[in-house]
Amino acid sequence: MAEGRLVIGTKMYSSWSLRGWLAVRLAALDVTEVVIPLAGGATEAVKQATPAGMVPYLEHRGCRVWESLAIVEYCAELAPGLWPADRAARAQARSIAAEMHAGFRGLRMAMPMSILNRFPGQGRTPEALADIARIEAIWREALLDSGGPFLFGEKFGAVDAMFAPVACRFLTWEPELSETSRAYVQAVRNHPLMRRWYDEAAAEPAAWRLPKYEQAPSA
């Protein structure tokens, strides 16, 4: 019998759901997955299913956890290897994960997650490009220090889960990236959990597709 449930949104579009889902799967929590189709904003179904009216939402062994970063931290209590073992590296990883959680609105608005589509050259607003430059700087420093292929070494961890939707966006919108960033994006995309997410997104009902995310803003 499952020990709880994880409520997420449409895998095609829900970047925050991907973060929570990756953390839960990396920690191997035994939970039932509940997918609620999104509609471009908060819906009555999501409001009824989650305390904050947003996804993801985790119930596990009597605990109720919402917000992606809180779910990541909860999972890391059960699977401490999700964060780097070294204290300084762990502090850096937590800092950039929190920066991802709180910022980069320009990128989010101009290049929404729509993982089965390709819009090369689109969405390159000044705000999005500034966010991309900052993200590339974060990645470059972490990968240089750790040796990669993931941000803090050989293991896909909590901080990679936080940046995974950015990799998805870059694959869809194809902004100009450094060789280092492109290699990291491919490493994320090739992870077994990411392959599973993409496959399950492709299997979602066509009725769940949202026109506003199925074309570039300029189309």
From TrEMBL:
<dbReference type="Pfam" id="PF13409">
    <property type="entry name" value="GST_N_2"/>
</dbReference>
<dbReference type="InterPro" id="IPR050983">
    <property type="entry name" value="GST_Omega/HSP26"/>
</dbReference>
<dbReference type="Pfam" id="PF13410">
    <property type="entry name" value="GST_C_2"/>
</dbReference>
<dbReference type="GO" id="GO:0016740">
    <property type="term" value="F:transferase activity"/>
</dbReference>
<feature type="domain" description="GST N-terminal">
    <location>
        <begin position="4"/>
        <end position="83"/>
    </location>
</feature>
<dbReference type="InterPro" id="IPR036249">
    <property type="entry name" value="Thioredoxin-like_sf"/>
</dbReference>
<dbReference type="InterPro" id="IPR004045">
    <property type="entry name" value="Glutathione_S-Trfase_N"/>
</dbReference>
<feature type="domain" description="GST C-terminal">
    <location>
        <begin position="86"/>
        <end position="219"/>
    </location>
</feature>
<dbReference type="GO" id="GO:0005737">
    <property type="term" value="C:cytoplasm"/>
</dbReference>
<keyword id="KW-0808">Transferase</keyword>
<protein>
    <submittedName>
        <fullName>Glutathione S-transferase</fullName>
    </submittedName>
</protein>
<dbReference type="InterPro" id="IPR036282">
    <property type="entry name" value="Glutathione-S-Trfase_C_sf"/>
</dbReference>
<dbReference type="InterPro" id="IPR040079">
    <property type="entry name" value="Glutathione_S-Trfase"/>
</dbReference>
<dbReference type="InterPro" id="IPR010987">
    <property type="entry name" value="Glutathione-S-Trfase_C-like"/>
</dbReference>
